[in-house]
Amino acid sequence: MKIICIGRNYANHINELGSERPLEPVFFLKPDSAVLPKKMPFFIPPFSDNVHFEVEVVVKINKVGKYIDQKFAHKYYDEIGLGIDFTARDVQEQCKEKGLPWEKAKAFDGSAVVGSFFKKHTLGDLCKLPFSLHKNGNLVQEGTTESMLWSVDELIAYVSQFLTLKKGDLIFTGTPSGVGPVTKEDQLLGTINGQKAFEIKVK
Ligand code: MG
Fold first, then answer.
1. Which of 46, 94, 103, 155 could form a disulfide with 107 if both were Cys (CB 3.0 to 4.6 A apart)?
2. Which CATH number goes with the domain that contains 160?
3. Which residue range(s) make up the domain with 41?
4. The pTM is what?
5. Distance (Å, rounded) from C-alpha 85 to C-alpha 90?
6. What is the whole-number distance in angstroms between the Cα of residue 12 and the centre of ligand 1?
């Protein structure tokens, strides 16, 4: 199983980080060891002083596919969930400055929170799917899939040109604005379409 993460898919997040708006989707991978085990707290890794949450809609691939046409992309997933792409922002900045890959900042153990999945037909219009993240009871991120630069189906078509998608692969579809740091004892609650998808504690 692999985790494909899309970067820079919401204009308001590109602006908040001062990043360049890409001409085509940006993606990177997390290994299966990045998945935070269910019911485990997220432990801030010792190599970072600035770990950020990024709440993202997650698509679970249900069959193998390569060079998937956008108009058939919807046949490759039937469950959608929500997760966090934890990012060691300080480490990522160093990698960006040196033009190095982001894995140290993005792919570390526990960096992928994968919440509950919901059958897509229960979620209404997938192009207008609302989601949110609360930290310690305060709303910190709020988005809708309507604001994505590239839709889920466009992302599947794009990524599958380069990588064979397999059953169980996850696509993290990018984060809206509002990303920020976590500190010990924080509580993070994610909702999608008004339903709780995960609740985790930071240690
Ligand atoms: Mg992200």
1. 103
2. 3.90.850.10
3. 3-201
4. 0.96
5. 15
6. 13
